[in-house]
Specification:
binds adenosine monophosphate, 416 residues, BirA Bifunctional Protein, domain 2, 15 helices, Rossmann fold, alpha+beta, eight-stranded mixed beta sheet, five-stranded mixed beta sheet
Length: 416
């Protein structure tokens, strides 16, 4: 028997209620905040991702890479930001008034060790505001992410923010961090040994218990910010306060990719144990330029839909059920089946969701199916009803039945 590949899952109809709910809120809020949808392909040129991450970065190691039949090296989309920036450049969106505000809901693929909240295919809802360095935009993006998560009914959310500086001030901090870490070499976990050499900022978000004490004493990047970055970070906080958004400063928040600058943030649900982020983002003022465009500041976030669903379930948030069919049409006999087919078609044309029985099941088993579909009404057509041009209308919750003219069934249901 085949199974879905490890770390992936099927989304069954009952689970889809969560997806519709989450996607509905995302689309509604993006429209409210002036973000427009943009879809990018499920695979991209491998270099698009490789180019924007440091050597040995998790995202590169975890990427699904393959060659197509022409020998082109491609990768399954691992995150949404680089593809959106590629599309921004490819379609000349820089010619529009800036910032250009976009959103996406995409599958993302990462070859990670599957565990709760960590999969090899997951889905992200993200937004990107490209073409403006205004700190008010950072605050808007943070507010949008927070509002999205809280409007789903999640409580106890907390926002953590940090600034990781710019090309001018970040290198000094990285040097200080390396200097601080070198005496601890023997005590570092294997991953941190690699991080120290290749991606020192990531040392700060190591989850290994043995590395926690070392992180606590590490220098803080906010003490190394240049005056422009300091002013920018203070302004972001000023706007967040003006928007009534509560946040905490956490100097351990860094992002995995090279292209992040200045503001970075995460939103986590409150609770015990290691907190996994529902979403995160930040400013990436160098990415567009690295992809061959003019220097273009930008800011965005991405939130993981599967993790949001886990949080909704943990907090017992009830989501609206998917719409159910209203009517089930049962029949007995060949002539009745023909009438049933015509009736179902009429109902559907009038916008009444209807299901037709199939095959030659007994009336009892047709009613059982109607019950399991949780329809409001079952319409039964037998030989007598065909002869009289009527149908039996059964209210499934009360069990009451009445005989009505066949031609009036649709309008009757519509009225009720
Ligand atoms: P990132 O691009 O790593 O910042 O991811 C953005 C969001 O996607 C995270 O905050 C998570 O909610 C979610 N996410 C990232 N990686 C995974 C994964 N492997 N499985 C499930 N969700 C993920």
């Amino acid at each position: 028997m085949f199974k879905a590949p490890r770390g992936t899952s099927d989304i069954l109809p009952q689970e889809k209620a969560y997806w519709r709910y989450i996607e509905g809120k995302a689309v509604y809020l993006c429209q409210l905040y002036g973000y427009q949808p943009l879809n990018t392909p499920v695979f991209e040129d491998y270099q698009l991702f490789a180019h924007t991450a440091p050597d040995g970065a998790d995202i590169i190691k975890e990427m699904y890479v393959f060659e197509d039949k022409s020998g082109q090296k491609l990768a399954l989309t691992a995150e949404g930001t680089a593809p959106i920036c590629r599309a921004y450049l490819e379609h000349g969106l820089f010619n529009l008034p800036q910032p250009v505000k976009l959103y996406y809901i995409i599958p993302a693929f990462r070859y990670e060790r599957p565990q709760a909240g960590r999969y090899r295919q997951h889905h992200q809802f993200g937004v990107e505001a490209i073409g403006d360095a205004d700190p008010a935009l950072d605050a808007e993006v943070i507010e949008l992410m927070y509002r999205f998560l809280s409007s789903l009914g999640l409580s106890g959310l907390f926002i953590e923010i940090n600034s990781i500086g710019c090309r001018k001030c970040q290198p000094d901090y990285v040097e200080a961090l390396k200097k601080y870490y070198s005496p601890f070499w023997d005590r570092l976990c294997p991953d941190c040994k690699v991080r120290l050499a290749r991606n020192p900022l990531r040392l700060l978000d190591c989850k290994e218990v043995s590395c926690q004490e070392i992180i606590t004493g590490a220098p803080k990047i906010t003490d190394y910010l240049c005056s422009e970055c300091q002013i920018h970070f203070q302004s972001v906080q000023k706007y967040l306060t003006a928007l009534g958004i509560t946040y905490q400063l956490n100097h351990r928040i860094v992002r995995g990719l090279d292209y992040y600058t200045r503001t970075v943030f995460e939103v986590k649900p409150e609770g015990k144990g290691v907190q996994i982020a529902l979403g995160g983002g930040g400013r990436y003022d160098n990415l567009i330029e690295e992809l061959g465009g003019k220097p273009t500041p930008a800011v965005g976030f991405a939130a993981g839909i599967e993790r949001i669903i886990i949080a909704l379930k943990n907090q017992n948030v009830i989501v609206p059920a998917l719409p159910k069919p209203v009517a089930y049409v049962a029949y007995l006999g060949t002539q009745a089946k023909l009438e049933a087919t015509k009736l179902v078609s009429r109902l559907r044309h009038q916008g009444i969701a209807a299901i037709q029985a199939t095959g030659d099941k007994s009336l009892k088993s047709q009613l059982r199916q109607a019950n399991s579909l949780d329809v409001k009404y079952t319409i039964i057509i037998g030989e007598k009803e065909v002869a009289n041009e009527t149908a039996v209308l059964r209210d499934m919750s009360s069990g009451e039945q009445e005989t009505v003219p066949l031609s009036e069934v649709a309008s009757l249901l519509e009225k009720r």
